[in-house]
Amino acid sequence: MDAIRFNDVTVQYRTRRGGAHTALKNFDLAVRDQEFISLVGPSGCGKSTVLRAAARLIAPTSGSIALEGERTLRGFERVAIVFQRPNLLPWLNVLDNILYPVRVLRRVSQEDRARASALLKMVGLTDASQRAPEELSGGMQQRVAICRALVLNPKILLMDEPFSALDALTREEIQFELRRIHEATRMTTLFVTHSVSEAVLLSDRIAIMSSAVGKAPILCQIELNER
Ligand code: ADP
Ligand code: ADP
Q1: Three-state DSSP state, 116
Q2: Mean pLDDT by 10 residues, the chain (227 residues)
Q3: How far apart are CA 225 and CA 227, in angstroms?
Q4: What is the Å distance from ligand 1's center to 13 Cα?
Q5: Which residues have C-beta atoms less than 6 Å from ligand 1?
Q6: Residues lining ligand 2, Cβ inside 6 A
Q7: Which among 189, 153, 164 is positioned nearest to 33, based on CA atoms?
Q8: Any idea which ligand is nearest the CA of 165?
Q9: Would you call 58 helix, strand, or coil by DSSP?
Q10: What pLDDT does 93 receive?
């Protein structure tokens, strides 16, 4: 079964003047279980819209999106999303930021704490667990955001240009870490980027989107690592 299946998805945004702007038209894509797939394309072609729709942050105007075969999402903790900006809560320390999604759902258990600590260790931030987000560099903050996304052990990870605000060296380090995390967890990952080189570095498969709304949204798919 596919992890995510977009079936003829069209998304229109309402404009202020009461009109409609078509951001995505007749989009089809099957994301396989456990793969790391990147969606590449020029700015404005609809990549973020694809991700927001997969995360159920927006509803498609027409068409359907099935997550693990289901059209309605039960248990939103199965899907996590990481944005370009870390969006950490400034009044919580690093550990409490990571545990925040747990706290929203239920009481934080010892196991949750252990998992959060293990995630921090995985990204080399054990020593930062009690620090405030504002004391951390951009790269460190984004690592915390990734830990927060993973704390509920999601089946599917959605990432929207997560590294484009980072300097080149930090980006390289964190890309390497993400690849390692994927190899360890085999979590299905849908990664959006405008950088072809980043997509090649990280992915098992790349889907290239066309900028021309109304044409076939996916121009081609490139298989890098067959599993
Ligand atoms: P990408 O992520 O590839 O840059 P987006 O999915 O952000 O593309 O945007 C696709 C199209 O939809 C663009 O033309 C963009 O201007 C438009 N768009 C995105 N978000 C909104 C919104 N909230 N309201 C209106 N139009 C939007
Ligand atoms: P990078 O270039 O890798 O993103 P920075 O140069 O931003 O890193 O930060 C390097 C170090 O300085 C990090 O260890 C970070 O914790 C620390 N640091 C950055 N900003 C602050 C700050 N506002 N207050 C305290 N420490 C900071």
Answers
A1: helix
A2: 94 92 94 96 92 94 91 72 96 98 95 96 95 96 96 95 93 93 94 94 94 71 77
A3: 6
A4: 8
A5: 13, 21, 23, 41, 43-49
A6: 134-140, 167, 170
A7: 189
A8: 2
A9: coil
A10: 98
Q: For residue 136, give the ligand 2 atom closest to its CA.
A: 16
The beta-carbon contacts of 213-219 under 8 Å, at least 24 apart in sequence, are: 213/22, 213/23, 213/24, 213/25, 213/45, 213/46, 214/22, 214/25, 216/26, 217/24, 217/25, 217/26, 217/27, 217/28, 217/45, 217/46, 218/27, 218/28, 218/29
Instruction: For residue 24, report the distance from its CA to the centre of ligand 2, in Å.
Output: 39
- pTM: predicted TM-score of the whole model, two decimal places: 0.85
ipTM above 0.90, yes or no: no
Distance 116 CA to ligand 1 centre (A): 34
Going by C-alpha positions, the residue among 19, 10, 25 that lies closest to residue 58 is: 10
Q: Is 68 exposed, middle or buried (0-12, 13-18, 19+ CB in 10 A)?
A: middle
